Amino acid sequence: MAHRDWLGLKQELPGNRRLMLTLFSFLAPLLLWSAVSYVPWLWHPLVHVTVPGDVDYFTDDMDVPRADYDRELAKVKAAGGTVPEGYAVNPVYLPPPHKVALAFYTAFTTEPRLPNEPWLHESLAHSIRTICWGFFISSLFGVPLGIMCGTYRFFSRLQEPFIEFFRYLPAPAFGALCVAILGIDDGPKIAVIFIGTFFQQVLVIANTVRKVDPALIEASQTLGASGWKLVRRVVIPASISDIYTDMRILLGWAWTYLIVAEIVGTMSGITYFINQQARYRNFDNVYAAIMMIGVIGFSSDLLLAWIGRIIFPWKRKAQSSKSAPSWWAKLLPKKTSPQPSQA
Amino acid sequence: MSAKESTLPDYRDLAPEVATRFDRIRQRPVLLSVQNLEKKFGTNGSTHTVFDGITLDIHRREFICVIGPSGCGKSTFIRIVAGLDEATGGQILLDGKAVTGPGHDRGMVFQGYTLFPWLTVKRNVMFGLEMRGKDKFTAENEARQWLDMVGLSKVEDSYPHELSGGMKQRVAIARALANEPRILIMDEPFAALDAQTRCQMQSYLLQIWKKVDVTILFITHDLEEAAYLADRILVLGTNPGRVVEFIENPVPRPRSPDQFVEPAYLSLKLRLEELIHPPVEVEEDKLPMIKLTNAGDDVE
Predict the structure, then answer these.
(1) pLDDT tens digit sequence for B284-295
(2) Where are the domains of chain A?
(3) Which of A33, A259, A267, B191 could form a disulfide with A272 if both were Cys (CB 3.0 to 4.6 A apart)?
């Protein structure tokens, strides 16, 4: 019953299989991409002309649809002229994996074409700066407000209905308004990220805080805690690690708003880079830049998860219903704490 | 009813040393006085009475167990004593002062441990002390003493999730006692533990109670536990909740599991059984007969 070991209902797989499947989840799309790129008879709808021959409109280094090429080839053959030569290629917007891999390096070393254009690393730094400011300002107000709403019904009833409404207004719709108010530089971009994050943040954190075990609050009351002390010493520490997890998810959302935010006003950051490269038809750079966003987002989340394990040692044992949101958290090395002898 | 009962003494016949002990207890000042306590749910129209007219006095350093069938409101009763719920009538006096809201003079131990998972064992015990404004150094010293008393000094820097259920409950007891409450309220504290650990914890609790000047109000649904631990057993009835009997435990102290075969213990247990699990009257003639049909009958 080998399939049982792989497809056990809700059963965790052994470590080596987990790792194998994880690698496969990345390898499968990569293999498909490689196959389409390197196996000549898979797709390759164009012919890259190397020798124009006697076809009038063929030039060196030109891509023509295969049907046109075959037709012209037949015509020239019939007329007895010089035969054109070429090989099958994919469209320019699908560069093969090795070119994209190379672009990860060359994109950084290629000098900008225009004098005032930023280098790639400058574009990335600009994007990260924008997202950090947007997220920081949002958290500065969103986290305390969320905790207040989650703790006191008064603030919940006072704030949440409006916020619930406001979060349905798409952040990009405020782009033009933000430019009018804040100018064309980074101000409106940060504002769009703020609008996209803040309202979700308040609601998500308020919900997390509301989920604090009421028994813990009652226990602390019987120990003499009340008022602000109870909030500071019980409500906040009881929810802080889940709030941290919320913040990680919200940061992921902030990344999705980044691209929209960077189009607002003067295009900037990684979005500007991607657009310029697409305009120059350097699609390998476009793919590399898109993937860099993924790599930065993913690795920053890994880093935050790792930091979380250090600053919330009581969460190391998977006891929270909401401990880690992602499959990869299970791959992290588990720190085992010494088990004291049983009572 | 049974032949066994006739050979047992009446549970109200106290041995001389037990009787004198109760005399001594009655001379102590009343610590907790519950007067005509009433709890109703629901607003105008349909109200549900959880309990009504509960009146009792608990003396200092008594060990009281509360038992009763489910739905008699025993949990609601002690939640009101703890100040976590409000009564709809009557009042509770602790040392002559009316109880309003929770406070550190009434320590509580819950069935679900309710240790703060983000604090180490020691910091958990320090929590109440710090809430009462003691400085960290004093709080830490006192917490260490309490942990020492429940035998958990070795794990003072562990987090609650690293402990077994019995250990967690010992921390919870230490945490409640560190606050020097007048009364320790325990809501089925050992119900979630396995039988063996529960037995150990009961003995632990008696030892602790011997060393500490504290009154204990202990809810349980385990009749043997009540008989083993209590000075007096408050038996609540249901529909509506009320005091059925407040029994003086005839089993002499110090208690040990050896006493489980003594007549005093057995007669008490029999009485508790009677009160909690009244015999169900089944009129056998009126039981509906189930017609057994032969599947073959339907086959043509």
Answers:
(1) 666 666 666 665
(2) 46-89, 106-315
(3) A267
